[in-house]
Amino acid sequence: MSRLRSALKVVGSLCVLLVSAPGVAGAYATDEPPPSSSTAAGLPDSRVYEEVSPANKHGFEAGATLGSENEVAVQFSVASPDGDAVAFGASGPAAETDASGLSRSFVAERTSEGWKSRSTTARGLDQTEGLSLAFQQPSWLDYSPDLSHLVYGTLGPQVQGAPAQSAGNIYLMGSDPFEKPTWLFEEGSGGAQGGFGVDLLGMSPDASVIYVAFERNLLPQDTGRSGWGVYEYRGGKLGEAGVLPDGSVPPAGALPAATASIVQENEDVYDASNPASLDNEVSEDGMRMFFVAGGELYVHEITNDGERSVLVSASQVAGHTGEAAPDGVQLFENLTQRLSGKTSEASAPTYAYASSDGSHVFFQSEDKLTDDAPNASGPKVYVFDVDTGSLEYLPGVTLGGIVTAAADGSSFMFVNDAATPELSRWVAGPDGGSVSPIVKLPGGGFVGPGRLVGDDSTFVFQASAPIEGFNNAGTEQIYRYDINTNELGCLSCPPVGVTPTGDAYLSAVDQFGDPDGRSLGEDREVNDARGVSADGEQVFFDSPDPLVGRDTNGQRDVYEWENGTVYLISSGTSSVYSLFLDNSESGGDVFFATSDELVEGDNDQGFDVYDARVPRPSDNPPPAAVPCEGDVCQGPPIIAELLGSPPSATFNGTENLVTEAEAVGHAKNVVRRLTRAQKLARALTACRKRKAKHGRSACKRRARRQYRAVPAVAKHNSGRGK
User: What pLDDT is stored for residue 343 in this prediction?
Assistant: First the structure.
């Protein structure tokens, strides 16, 4: 359901790749001139700085965390469409009235009295006796678009009757941190015991429908099923969602259609995906969910008359209509085998990518499923129209990745991994639609994240390939393609004469290691940061290079591109990174993390979340912040487990439980963990640039062994519709 917003989405996680067919129309894009650099002293668009996170954070940091050697771990952050609210992570209870509790997740709302922050998880996470602090931390988050609801997981019980040591503790919270959360798995409490895998797939905007995949039977009718199951929480009840068209539960279980790569190393399982990369397997309204059972692709749909499941990968060849694809869809190797240690390689990319409205899904199969598909062996790409039930073959198939698609599935941008890799655009039409090239991708590389905005007239993307004609020197940069004029420009490339020193990021959250010891964007997942205004006229990013003369600190800073000019959003003078987090749909709000003290009252020396806001006529200037006072203003404290691994990162059954004393004793290692996490993130970034896929996989495994800080991956997500 989420905006992907959050969904690549994605190169490397949700992949379908078309090769340009013979006779493809169009020509490569024309290069735009480089943007000019603003010389103005103030912020663009008459913006003003507003401190979003509390001035007194009790010594904790918000939006990002500074480790040793000035290494930054970014916290997950996502804004509401109107920019009047933003969810942000902190290194501890930064928005509480005192320093008690364990909350690390907050929503700040702009009021007539300024920005006010509230905890988004239930109060009293530290009240479970005998359970380590680490096992009471939320392991992932999924917000509704307006940030009024949150679904989160924690191994600690939040309601009476919930188990104390279970990945099945999945809760729904409203906007009141004092209210009792709803335990989604209450009906399946017996099956939810123990350390089993769980994935939050998405939800409807009002949180009335929530989809979860769980590696365990949760309901009585599951008793004959093995493997994973896909469930929906709807109308206050937990039910099966991954069911067959006849209403039966698949004997071998079901998996979400866009499950991203999982790497098995010995007994450690690494989920290399941000759940944001899975968002399009649930439509933005929450009424459709795509899953795989028995190798076939299905869509589960909630209708006015109830619900139904439809076989997507069914033959529409004359005389064979409705038959399942003999070889099924090409998705991923068997998850059960991978978890049981029968393979140590990362799974192949998944080949199912749905439009955000759930009306179309693109997938790949070896089988001839339409009359016009070729008889020859080899992968074939199809698009299924959920509304009409029709299946269409798209000529020219190879492996690669869809970067982003129109909300209604009428077009998508993709990487063509043919002999000469190129970025191309597919548009629906007669005979399988048409493909137009955009630009060559020398040496391949990856493309993503990407955003298709401005009524599908503007495509903004990040690419690692050294695209010719731009001052990129082989670094990752941000590009903007105007579909109407067929012009391509590099928005983040340094001015001529300045050699790029590093990568520009359309999303800092997607690139930097999070506080749980991993890179959120390891496999190029698109996360929830927009990075682009809805009309495509403003683009936001951060870069390590000075794109304007006032950027003098030699650190990463936040920028805005608008109408051919680049403007500095952060100060350009901070001693450490400033990182772009998210923006409102209009672009009137730019949220970023910085340790700079940009407003009166900010004097705690730690990271804060700021809004560079275009004033509205109805705005009341926020009152001056109450300065922080005392020892807590001298930088972030070392607090046991608050910067360490979340529960899902260390939990593998009861044998991993630690005492409170052990958790406290671990505090001295917190900074080391962050440093190792950053080294891992950097090593993985280097691995991604290897040309050979097997070389990249081996490189990643070596990096994890060398720098591994946690044995598995925490999940963070924001479920907002695009």
Answer: 34
433-436: long-range pairs with CB below 8 Å, 24+: 433/394, 434/24, 434/25, 435/18, 435/20, 435/21, 435/24, 435/396, 436/24, 436/25, 436/26
Distance CA 458, CA 152 (A): 34
- State residue 679's pLDDT score: 45
Query: In a 3-state reduction of DSSP, which class is residue 313?
Result: coil
Cβ 37 vs Cβ 100: under 8 Å: no
DSSP code, position 350: B
Contacts of 488 by beta carbon, 8 Å cutoff, 6+ apart: 29, 30, 31, 32, 438, 439, 479, 480, 481, 482
Place of tokens 């929480």: 233
Nearest to 166 by CA among 192, 204, 142, 139: 192
Q: pLDDT, tens digit, for every residue of 545-597?
A: 999 999 999 999 999 999 999 999 999 999 888 999 999 999 999 999 999 99
Rounded Cα gap, residues 429 and 348, in angstroms: 30
- Structural contact between residues 168 and 216, judged by C-beta atoms closer than 8 angstroms: yes
Backbone CA torsion sign across 54, 207, 233, 226: negative
Side chain identity, residue 539: V
Determine the Cα–Cα distance for residues 716 and 515; give it in Å rounded to an integer. Answer: 11
pLDDT in tens, 416-450: 766 678 888 999 999 999 888 999 988 777 787 88
Tokens of 618: 């109805």
Q: Which helix (H) or strand (E) holds 76?
A: none
DSSP 8-state symbol, 486: T
The answer to whether 19 and 57 have CB atoms below 8 angstroms apart is: no
Q: How much is the pLDDT for 525?
A: 36
Question: Percent helix, strand, coil in the chain (nearest 5)?
Answer: 10, 30, 60
* Bond into 449 cis (ω within 30): yes
What is the Cα–Cα distance from 17 to 15, expressed in whole angstroms? 7
Side-chain half-sphere exposure of 591, counting CA atoms within 13 A:
38
Query: Residue 297: in which H helix or E strand, if any?
Result: strand 296-303
